[in-house]
Amino acid sequence: MAIEFKLDDHSYNKLMDRVGFNGNGVLVKLSRVLIPIVICWGPLAIYSIFNQNLWTGNISTSFLTDFDLQAKLLIAMPLLIILDNLIGAKLSLIIDQFDNSGIIGKEIKASFETIVYDNLDFLRSHWTKIVILIICYIQLYIVFSYEIEHTSQLTWQMNVINGEASLNFAGYWNQLICAPFVLFLSYLWILRIIVWGRILYKISTLKITLFPMHPDLSGGLGFLGYSIRYFSPLAFAFSVIVAGNMTDFMLLEGLHLNDLRWFGLAYFLFITLIFSFPLLTFGGQLNNAREQSVFQNYDYINGLFRELRIKMAKGFDEVNPNDLTLPDYSAAADLSMLVDNSLKMKLVPFIFRDFVPLWLMAGIPFLGVLIIEIPINQLFQGLISFLFK
């Protein structure tokens, strides 16, 4: 029986179901995303229109040019909402593959299911979400207390009365509703990744059955590499948040891309490790399987090649056309390839190709940051000069 691997069971989704927005239709999915946008972004835009700072001609005082906010509310937030079902369904394939492929034997299946369900129950717990939300508000309070003393605080959120700056309605709405919600979704996803890693670690401690001669060179665990690809849309959402923040630093604080290069490299290293590190927990099992295969199979293989050598012990004149039709040679060649697979077993259940979609999706949002540093007209001029020089 397949395990129902649902990352979450939102109260929000239940509420939507009760009011009639249920099912998997495009309109339903669109409604689930648009409602949070209307609630979070809508009041900010409306207030900015009446407060005449929707667009002031200055990027530091305009609502529309708060790229960090627009990226979070209009791109990242919708993705973080809809990806739980999409990625959850993909991870279900991986969990089921453990069982369907024979890697999880009958004697450990109960322990396997306990590992999965216990961790999912932790993720779905309301107390887990309450703790995350409290952490979000504490963090935002600390950050805001710092920003309020610096000019980096965007003035569309502020009113200046008698020389003293204070939050206006948009500022309060952003700090109390919008920012906590996006941060909550981000931390919830990070927790899901950590729990996913814990599930894989716990599975790796079981007495799983690996197949050293498997052509994926990972003992049959090669399917785990697909989990890295499945998280690519989430990496895109995270990158949208990071790129939006970098954009504001460059436009408001006067920083350049070169000033943020180490931060960018650290981010890509983080994205690479957070999605691949959980798979490294199977390294010990893969190493043991490879060693056991060598010692278990070598005696048998040596015996087979001994017999083959006896059959091949003929002189030049003793060979006849019938020798070409003997199945022993092809069987020996096939066996050699299988043994070669076990000798070439990797200690990691993924390959370089698994990272390509992750890096591409994580890198796309930073193209906007690059355009800010190198104006688009200069890019075109450089391209034309290169093509027609």
Mean pLDDT, all residues: 84
Describe the sheet with the most strands: 2 strands, antiparallel
How would you sum up the global shape?
Answer: elongated
Order of helices and strands: HHHHHEEHHHHHHHHH
Strand content: under 5%
Task: Order the strands across the largest sheet as they lie in space.
Answer: 1-2
Quaternary structure classification: single chain
Helix content: 55-70%
**How many helices does DSSP assign?**
14
**N/C terminus separation:** 65 Å
Backbone CA Rg: 29 Å
Given as residue ranges, the uncertain stretches (5+ residues, pLDDT < 50) are: none
Count the domains. Answer: 2
Number of strands: 2
Structural class: mainly alpha
Overview of this protein structure:
With 389 residues, the chain is mostly helical. The chain folds into 2 domains: 1-209, no CATH class; 213-314 and 324-389, no CATH class. Helix content is 66%, strand content 2%. It is built from 14 helices and 2 strands; from the N terminus they run αααααββααααααααα. Helix 2 (26-50) runs antiparallel to helix 3 (67-100) and helix 8 (232-252) packs parallel to helix 12. The N and C termini lie far apart (65 Å).
What labels describe this entry?
389 residues, 2% strand, 66% helix, 2 strands, 14 helices
Q: What order do the helices and strands come in, and which of them pair?
A:
Blueprint: H1 11-18, H2 26-50, H3 67-100, H4 109-124, H5 126-147, E1 158-161, E2 164-167, H6 169-204, H7 226-230, H8 232-252, H9 261-276, H10 283-311, H11 327-343, H12 356-363, H13 366-373, H14 376-388
Antiparallel strand pairs: 1-2
